[in-house]
Write a structure and sequence with these properties.
By secondary structure, the protein is α+β, with helices and mostly antiparallel strands. About 25% of the residues lie in helices and about 35% in strands. It has helices at about 15-30, 60-65, 100-110, 130-135, 175-185, and strands at about 5-10, 35-40, 50-55, 70-80, 80, 90-95, 115, 125, 130, 145-160, 165-170, 190-200, 205. Strands 1, 2, 3, 4, 7, 10, 11, 12 and 13 form a nine-stranded mixed sheet that branches. A two-stranded antiparallel ribbon has the order 5-6. A two-stranded antiparallel ribbon has the order 8-9. The longest helix is centred in the N-terminal third of the chain and has 16 residues, at about 15-30.
């Protein structure tokens, strides 16, 4: 393929840029020339799931794919917080209190609909032309403005303290790491995202992902 899109199921512990590089290498070798490949929205290294890669001439339409709604499944670890909002950060205990299921349901309901989020400083958002995570790693103060996002649906899949599993359908630009931290904060016990999987982007499902690409090489 030299033009179009490829659906990829990203494995954990790999950057989105790493996925693009490996697919580019495979396609370029097959075509006997360099093939242009881009992504339409990053997934954190610890996260897994659906990525839409644009190939060749389709790269000019990458922005239209990045604006689509997405569905995620996530696990939130309550009682602790992480500096990055995920397992890669420095984790510390906050509270030993165990929220009731009623408190969980109330917190979930507070984050449905149009909400305001402040994206994490360890993110790919550009601040003054520089990726926020690069500034954060340098120990610099990073101020990211709040943004309006839409949580179309948010449901509890399972709750067995300290782990809360959720499924959510969100607008583009929504950070599930921030959602996890905000839910933990509202419960008064803290929380961070230990697992994250993107299962849908608009009408594309992760089960449609092309399995012919070996991303381990």
């Amino acid at each position: 393929m030299t033009d179009g899109i490829i659906l990829i199921d990203k494995p954990a512990n790999m950057t989105s840029f790493g996925v693009v590089a490996r697919v580019r290498r495979v396609l370029s070798q097959a075509a006997g020339k360099k093939v242009k490949v881009g992504h339409t929205g990053t997934l954190d290294p610890f996260a897994t799931g659906l990525m839409i890669l644009v190939i060749g001439a389709e790269c000019k339409n990458a922005g239209s794919y990045s604006k689509l709604d997405k569905v995620y499944e996530a696990t939130i670890r309550l009682g602790q917080v992480s500096t990055t909002g995920d397992p890669e950060g420095e984790v510390r205990d906050v509270s030993p209190d165990i929220p009731t299921r009623e408190a969980i349901d109330e917190a979930i309901g507070a984050f449905t609909g149009e909400i305001t989020q402040i994206p994490p400083i360890f993110s790919a958002i550009k601040v003054g032309g520089v990726r926020a995570y690069k500034l954060a790693h340098q120990g610099k103060t990073v101020e990211i403005p709040a943004r309006q996002v839409t949580v179309h649906s948010l449901e509890v899949v399972d709750y067995a303290y300290p782990y809360l599993q959720i499924k959510t359908h969100v607008s583009s630009g929504t950070y599930v790491r921030t959602l996890a931290a905000d839910i933990g904060k509202r419960l008064g016990v803290g929380g961070y995202c230990t697992q994250l999987r993107r299962t849908r982007i608009a009408d594309w499902d992760v089960n449609q992902a092309d399995q012919s690409y070996d991303l381990t090489k």
